[in-house]
Specification:
The protein is mainly α and 408 residues long. Among the domains are: 58 residues, Arc Repressor Mutant, subunit A (Orthogonal Bundle), CATH 1.10.10; 52 residues; 50 residues, Arc Repressor Mutant, subunit A (Orthogonal Bundle), CATH 1.10.10; 81 residues, no CATH class. It has 17 helices and two strands. The longest helix has 26 residues.
């Protein structure tokens, strides 16, 4: 095959040049790439490549788009995007024509969606075969079908189980059985299941100690490894218990790191879940994953007042103390952390809730002290060096009991 001059030049510059670096991008290179791309506003990759020795402009651009661009893969879906996706899939004749669907979707939605996201969103949530089936509520008939099918085929054979539970996706069935219906979990299965009421058993002191030891061993965030030390507990239960215990304020730091990750890192560094029936080539199964973590960045946090004092409440005359509006807790105000972005503030919800509880407890303690100081001081009470006088209590005389016929 004959190659022209431009093809030979491009292949040499991009692949065969001895000065090129063909190894993986290191953490320092990724951090420098994020900083340089933000300074150049995502353009002028020739200037970015000058500060990255051994990397070409195309290599820097592809690395940033695949592993570091936070706008490339978004996690939230809006109703407008769902309507557009259903319309485009209908025009292209189904999910098999993903290339044309992705190109049109990224054009109309300003990018940010991968093939796996489009396929899973349409197959699990927007498919016409599931439009009449509720996505969250599980009825008694569905639960009976799920438990019977799992008892027959066993755990892990979800494709065979899905034949007996129509209208449910594989992730939905797996999550429901592993986190709710599994008999190995520590649940009170005799109590009827109600929406909004958990059947989980209370945590013991030994389980709390094992959880803290697992966190010290595996690190905060590795809940799938921590639950191996706690048989009968799920990853979500370990995470919730960690949030409740908050050892050495690690839960507060973890929430801030989650907000930083949502802002600075892509929603999915690499994809592992693939729908059955769709074959993917091994070389395209994983996106390049960066070694950059959330602690490598700094997140700007602001403290805003979330409660107002006693005087301001009296002037307003509202007396409304719900969580949606600022309120008072015994005249004590507190502050909450915010980033200015409502999407990132979702990760700080639990941290601000703990601040509110601390403010309530502090306000209750101050209220008790205020009521104690407002009482008049009696002789010898509350004075230093003076023993309190013993309070005189008159002794009540016993009353004469009426005699009954049985006493005779």
């Amino acid at each position: 095959m004959v190659r022209n001059a431009y093809s030979c030049y491009t292949h040499f510059v991009q692949m065969l040049d001895p000065g090129l670096e063909h190894t993986r991008f290191t953490r320092s290179e990724d951090l420098a790439l994020v900083e340089l791309s933000s300074k150049n506003r995502g353009f002028n990759w020739q200037e970015v490549a000058k500060h990255s020795p051994g990397r070409t402009p195309w290599r820097c651009f592809s690395r940033y788009q695949q592993a570091l661009n936070t706008k490339q893969t978004r996690s939230e879906w809006t109703p407008e995007e769902d309507i557009q996706l259903v319309r485009l899939v209908g025009q292209q004749g189904g999910c098999k024509n993903l290339i044309s669907v992705i190109s049109q979707t990224n054009t109309e939605m300003n990018g940010g969606r991968s093939a796996d996201q489009l396929r899973e969103r349409y197959t699990n949530c927007l498919c016409m075969s599931r439009k009449n089936v509720p996505s969250q509520h599980w009825g008694p008939l569905d639960l009976a079908r799920l438990n019977t099918a799992v008892s027959i085929y066993g755990r892990g054979h979800w494709r065979h189980v899905a034949r007996h539970v129509p209208g449910r996706s594989l992730p939905s069935m797996t999550s429901r059985y592993q986190n709710v219906e599994n008999r190995e979990l520590k649940r009170d299965f005799e109590r009827p299941a109600k929406r909004g009421h958990s059947r989980s058993l209370t945590w013991s002191v030994d389980e709390d100690e094992k959880l803290l030891e697992a966190i010290e061993r595996y690190g905060v965030g590795n809940w799938s490894l921590a639950r191996l030390e706690l048989p009968g507990r799920t990853s979500h239960e370990c995470w919730c218990r960690f949030q409740r215990l908050n050892p050495e304020s690690k839960a507060d730091i973890y929430d801030i790191l989650l907000a930083t990750k949502s802002k600075m890192l892509p929603a999915s560094s690499y994809h592992r879940k693939y729908m059955p029936g769709h074959r993917v080539e091994p070389r395209n199964r994983k996106r390049p994953r960066s070694e950059v973590i959330a602690s490598d960045f700094k997140l700007r946090l602001m403290e805003t007042p979330a409660a107002i004092g006693q005087a301001q409440v009296e002037e307003d005359g509202s007396g409304n103390n719900d969580e949606s509006s600022p309120g008072k807790f015994g005249g004590l105000s507190y502050t909450v952390l915010t980033t200015g972005d409502h999407r990132l503030d979702r990760s700080l919800t639990r941290l601000n809730a703990r601040r509110r509880l601390n403010a309530q407890s502090s306000a209750s303690v101050l209220a008790v002290k205020d009521r104690t100081l407002d009482k008049p001081i009696k002789s010898g009470v509350g004075l230093p060096g003076v023993a309190p006088r013993r309070r005189f209590r008159p002794r009540l005389r016993p009353t004469k009991r009426q005699r009954s016929p049985l006493d005779q």
